[in-house]
Design goal:
alpha/beta, MutS, DNA mismatch repair protein, Chain A, domain 3, five-stranded antiparallel beta sheet, 24 helices, about 50% helix, extended, mismatched DNA binding, EC 3.1.-.-, EC 3.6.4.-, ATP binding
């Protein structure tokens, strides 16, 4: 049940139906679109959604469905049902084309049996009655006219008409030529008057030809005469035409009688074509709005993911703009959402999107939301949107709102979706707010589901303290002073009344006077909401930045693992190759030694020969030593045998430098020499006895960085400084803030004439690490403080 009746139009559902109707190919399909309405039976809604989803998949991924001719069959079948009537030629032709479309559609799905089960159910057990088509094709030709040979009598009549027309034409041509030779004819050729072929004769010569005058020219100079000898032939043709018409009526009557027993089947065919056209139009509209089928539930709940208003989506698409997606969740625990935020911030669009998509789902339409969305079934939908004042009913705007609130509180239940825009407005806020809060309390007690938009602070406070009701706000960029159209649940939003008024250009005197007139408590609440809004925005941006860094980290990790695997593989290959070379060297060395010994024996230890063989052996050994890069080992110092560990003091060989070990990585050691860091091979250092060193020098590097981070505050005060000194100070703080990963830097420069502020901002724009800048809130320094947000 929808209340009030105009809620359908105010939510935009009538516009949705009009867009679907424009996709239909036939009048019956359009009539079905007009009858679209929300259903409350789960099985029915599920069937309609699945049919639209399957047709959408068919249109995108399959061959085109043969729907060339969709003429309405039902009216013709009802006409044929009456005994004694007959269908005209064009009516039989329309039935013939529609039946061919029906049979083509049935064959299309039979070839894809089981692929589209819900669409196949449209024509389940519907036979293909080819006898009807055959009977019509025997009488009606491809142009929709009765065939000349539809019956022997008709063929004979048409033959007689042709012969008579030829004879009449031959005789009138003879008379016309004779008249021309005698100079009796006027300018022009034979012409038709009153359906009879006539000769144009000059008025003064009209008595010279026997015949009937059918017409005269406007000037009276020409008479149109049908010769006497042709008149009888034309009468014969006319009689045969009457006979032809009577025979055609007889043939059509017999064909209608033959069609009459199939009237119920023809109506079933009509229903199939209407449904196919109807579901096709829904699928085409779903493609236009990028619609998907959500998960359908039996409970009264809504969980929309990346949802968009379909009408807004189509409108913005024409101007190359996009719609900010909406995420919202309503269930038994979070029943009513109270949406607050600035004017023109998207509150009403958010509420209308939820209501419209719910109507679309329960009407069997796909919605522009992610397929992971979940939508339940509501028995009732109540909406209070816009101004419904009525002069006839003596209702003011607020009285109309109260009438609806009365109806809502009396008839709503746990299966009702309630949508209220600008809840409580239309009267004195001092009284309208408490009344709205009382109504909201009643609706919550009845476990009603719904969305409420408001600016009233008491409703925000009530929502934050009441189970089942959740605050939500539309995010607002208080720097650019523009809405972001992003819904975030959990916290209320500010109306940004003063900020928007300031941007529009309302005088500062007026704004200050207005601030003084509102209460301190309200001022603190609004300031808190603004701060909260900014913090939420910063958290949202930080989450996006963290997600990007996590993505980058995952990519680097994958690349590192890939590189490590590559190095491990190469390491195995190198070791294997080295072992093989070592084996070859050993084999060659053994041969060389054996040959040397054999040579010494053969020379019987002759000194010259022995010396030459030894020199040859040394040369071969030296060659292999150079190839392997083997360096003679120096005599090791006994101190080097002692293991080196983090914190030990070492001396770098070949220098007098002493340093402390701060980390060890495989065969390398990282050394600290005061503020300098160096990496040396472990074999290039020797351990020495501990030496006294100031605590600062012995402090590990990581500890010092942690201390620096703990003591550093991303805030710099440059008030009273000259421009160069201020920029130098800001540069130092900016470098530390970027290095330590702080998200922002607070710069206190004062207001003055704004010169220092101008130079500071121009200087910060040169840094790629600074993403944006904004002033502090007016209540906490305003233009005298700049926040620089960092990457």
């Amino acid at each position: 049940m929808i209340y009030p009746d105009n809620a359908i139009e105010k939510l935009g559902f009538a516009d949705i139906k009009a867009l679907i109707k424009a996709k239909c190919l036939s009048e019956p399909g359009m009539e079905m679109v007009n009858k679209i309405s929300p259903q409350t039976r789960f099985d029915q809604v599920d069937k309609f959604l699945r049919q639209a989803h399957e047709f959408k998949e068919l249109l995108i991924n399959d061959a085109p469905l043969p729907v060339d001719h969709l003429y309405p069959i039902r009216p013709l079948a009802e006409k044929a049902r009456i005994v004694g009537t007959f269908l005209a030629e064009d009516e039989f032709f329309a039935i013939l084309l529609s039946l061919k479309t029906v049979f083509a559609v049935i064959r299309y799905f039979n070839e894809r049996s089981g692929q589209y089960p819900n669409l196949e159910a449209l024509f389940e057990h519907l036979p293909i009655e080819k006898n009807i088509v055959s009977a019509i094709e025997q009488v009606i030709d491809a142009k929709g006219r009765v065939k000349p040979n539809a019956s022997p009598i008709l063929a004979e009549i048409i033959s007689g008409i042709t012969k008579a027309e030829q004879e009449a034409r031959k005789r009138i041509d003879q008379v016309f030529r004779t008249a021309q030779q005698n100079g009796w004819t006027a300018d022009g050729n034979l012409t038709v008057r009153d359906g009879r072929l006539c000769i144009p004769i000059l008025a003064e010569s009209k008595r010279k030809i026997k015949g009937w005058i059918h017409d005269e020219s406007a000037t009276g100079q020409t008479a149109y005469i049908e010769p006497e000898e042709v008149f009888h032939l034309n009468n014969k043709v006319r009689d045969l035409e009457f006979d032809k018409r009577r025979e055609i009526v007889r043939i059509l009557t017999e064909l209608t009688d033959e069609l009459r027993p199939h009237v119920p089947l023809l109506i079933a065919y009509h229903n199939l074509l209407s449904k196919v056209d109807f579901v096709r139009a829904k699928a085409l509209f779903a493609i236009d709005i990028d619609g998907h089928m959500p998960e359908l539930g039996k409970d009264a709940s809504i969980s929309l993911v990346a949802a968009r208003h379909p009408l807004l989506l189509l409108t913005l698409r024409e101007s190359q703009q996009s719609v900010v997606p909406l995420n919202v969740h309503i269930d038994d625990r979070q029943r009513i959402i109270v949406v607050s935020g600035p004017n023109a911030g998207g509150k009403s669009v958010c509420m209308k999107t939820i209501g419209l998509l719910q109507l679309m789902v329960q009407s069997g339409l796909l919605i522009p939301a992610d397929a992971t969305s979940k939508v339940g079934i509501f028995k009732q939908l109540f909406a209070d949107i816009g101004d419904d004042q009525s002069i006839e009913s003596d209702l003011s705007t607020y009285s109309a709102h109260l009438s609806k609130m009365k109806y809502f509180s009396e008839h709503a239940d746990a299966k009702t979706l309630v949508l209220i825009d600008e809840f409580g407005t239309g009267t004195d806020p001092l009284f309208g707010g408490p009344i709205a809060e009382a109504v909201l309390e009643v609706l919550n007690r009845k476990k009603v589901r719904g969305v409420v938009t408001t600016h009233y602070s008491n409703l925000k406070v009530f929502a934050s303290n009441t189970e089942g009701i959740e605050n939500a706000s539309m995010l607002f960029d208080n720097v650019a002073m523009r809405p972001l159209y992003i819904l975030q649940t959990g916290k209320p939003g500010s109306s940004y009344a003063f900020e928007i008024a300031q941007k529009i250009g309302l005088g500062e005197t007026i704004l200050q006077a207005a601030r003084q007139k509102i209460g301190d408590q309200q001022k603190r609440v609004d300031t808190l909401l603004v701060d909260l809004e900014r913090d939420k925005k910063e958290v949202y941006e930080a989450k996006i930045a963290i997600a990007q860094k996590e993505k980058q980290l995952s990519r680097l990790k994958a690349e590192n693992e890939q590189l490590q695997a590559y190095l491990e593989e190469n390491k195995k290959t190198i070791i294997s190759k080295a072992r093989e070379e070592a084996r070859d060297i050993i084999r060659n060395a053994n041969k060389l030694v054996e040959n040397t010994i054999s040579g010494i024996r053969e020379s019987q230890a002759e000194k010259t020969k022995t010396k030459a063989l030894r020199q040859q052996l040394d040369a071969e050994l030296h060659k292999h030593t150079e190839r392997a890069n083997i360096q003679p080992k120096a005599k090791q110092n006994p101190v080097e045998a002692v293991a080196i560990k983090v914190g030990d003091w070492v001396k770098i060989l070949g220098t007098d430098n002493e340093a402390q070990v701060i980390s060890i990585a495989k065969n390398n050691v990282v050394l600290a020499m005061g503020e300098l860091r160096t990496v040396q091979k472990r074999s290039n250092v020797i351990r020495i006895a501990k030496k006294d060193e100031p605590t600062r020098s012995r402090q590990p590097h990581q500890t010092r960085i942690a201390d620096d981070v703990a003591s550093f505050r991303p805030e710099v005060d440059v008030r009273g400084m000259r421009t160069e000194a201020a920029l130098y100070e800001i540069e130092k703080f900016l470098d530390k803030a970027v290095m330590m990963g702080f998200p922002s830097l607070k710069i206190v420069h004062g207001k003055g004439d704004g010169i220092l502020r101008k130079f500071i901002r121009e200087y910060l724009r040169k840094y790629g690490e600074v993403t944006r800048m904004e002033d502090e809130h007016p209540d906490r320094g305003g233009e005298g403080i700049t926040y620089a947000y960092l990457v």
